[in-house]
Amino acid sequence: MDASTLEQRIVRYGDLVPCRTAFIDAHTPGSNQKENFTIIGAGVSESPDQYVHIRETPGFNIGAAGQPPRCTNSLHTHRTAEVFFVHSGRWRFFWGEHGTDGEFIAEPGDLFNIPTGIFRGFENIGDDYGMLMAVLGGDDAGGGVIWAPHVIEAAREHGLVLAENGKLYDSKKGEQLPEGIKPMPLLTPEELKQFPVVHENAVIPDYVARYRDIEALARQAPLRVLGADGWLKDKPGFEIDFLQRGQVGLGDAYRTDRHEILMVHRGHWRVTVDGVSATLAPGDTCAVPPGSERVIEPTMSGETALFLVRNTDDPAGPTHVD
Questions:
Q1: Residue-wise over 208-234: b if at least 16 C-beta within 10 A, else e?
Q2: What CATH number does the domain containing 141 carry?
Q3: Mean pLDDT throughout 270-286?
Q4: pLDDT beyond 70 at 169
Q5: Taking residues 21-29, what's their average pLDDT?
Q6: Where would one find the signal peptide in this protein (predicted)?
Q7: Is there a single domain that holds both residue 188 and residue 248?
Q8: Which of 112, 143, 186, 316 has a CA-to-CA distance to 137 between 20 and 30 Å?
Q9: Residues paired with 61 in a beta bridge
Q10: Is there a domain that residue 322 lies in?
Q11: How much is the pLDDT for 47?
């Protein structure tokens, strides 16, 4: 691997290309200022305007949501895992068909493995633009997004119609559903009853990892934050480790037959792949291919933090381990 090839496998935070028409709530007041980013894999965008930085999927997708203060991402669900960590900002997560089943406040560095099969939304409640980084299970991210019925109805009032083929049509641009294509049907009351009601006391202990707790537990060695043998026990087709300066073995060369995605949260890091090095800054993402020799090490003193996402042999899906 040469330097240019390695650089092609790095998505710089400052180079992220946003899409403001990615989903059905793009015109709905309160949600119409959000920006969506597809970093690795095709993601779940409903818009052809979505830019994809790295199309290769390692068994999961990496995306991000950027939102100004008081901007909300509407209630939806996925068929596979959705795991967030807060890169910046202060966020309120809420869930349930109407967002009333539970909520919690997430700070920078917090990780949330949202239970599969529940409607979820999130709002930037901080004072500045905030960024959430997301890992979605599966190469095709489970076949798209399932929206709460009231979200689809509100979108229609503001000119956006989601078709049964999963594509958005914008009447403000003069677009109409093609002949023979029907609108996406709303979930029926009977179908909605199949979605579980999950309250806060069942979510916080088993699905949330607070950044300060992660730091404390990972002082001596890399910490498996999420995985079959992780702090948060799950098998969604990937696992997530946390790296920081001072850990035993950090900076040693190793090989693996797995895809590894490096997502920098704090500090600057050097990644060396088959003898070629590059420096990663906060918000940068690097896709390290299987079989290559790699060295991962911080390049500065002070606070450093990096989330490493690795594919596993587990099928993507609702596979939470109790």
A1: bbebeebbeebeeebbbbbbeebbbeb
A2: 2.60.120.10
A3: 98
A4: yes
A5: 90
A6: none
A7: no
A8: 186
A9: 136
A10: no
A11: 76
Q: Examine the fold and report which residue of 208, 242, 267 is the final residue of a domain before the chain moves on.
A: 208
**Helix, strand, coil percent content, the chain, rounded in steps of 5:** 15, 40, 50
The rounded Cα 43 to chain-centroid distance in angstroms is: 9
217 and 204 within one domain: no
Number of domains in the chain: 2
For residue 307, the enclosing domain spans 212-311
238-274 pLDDT tens trace: 999 999 999 999 999 999 999 999 999 999 999 999 9
pLDDT of residue 178 exceeding 60, the answer is: yes
Shared domain check, 74 and 10: yes
Polymer length in residues for the chain: 322
Tell me, what amino acid is at 240? Answer: I
- Of the candidates 316, 98, 96, 83, the residue with the CA atom closest to the CA atom of residue 196: 96
| Cβ-proximal residues to 9 (8 Å cutoff; 6+ apart), any chain | 54, 273, 286, 287, 288, 289
Percent of the chain with pLDDT over 90: 75
- 188 plus 217 within the same structural domain: no
Same domain, 130 and 192: yes
CA distance 45 to 144: 8
Are 66 and 186 contained in the same domain? yes
Contact by Cβ (8 Å): 311, 259:
yes
Element (H, E) at 85: strand 82-88
Q: Which of 12-21, 30-39, 82-91, 171-180 has the lowest mean pLDDT?
A: 171-180
Q: Is the pLDDT of residue 48 over 90?
A: no
Q: Is 204 helix (H, G, I), strand (E, B) or coil?
A: helix
- Sign of the torsion angle spanned by Cα atoms 59, 105, 14, 297: negative
Residue 38, C-beta contacts closer than 8 angstroms, at least 6 positions apart: 19, 45, 50, 51, 52, 53, 61, 63
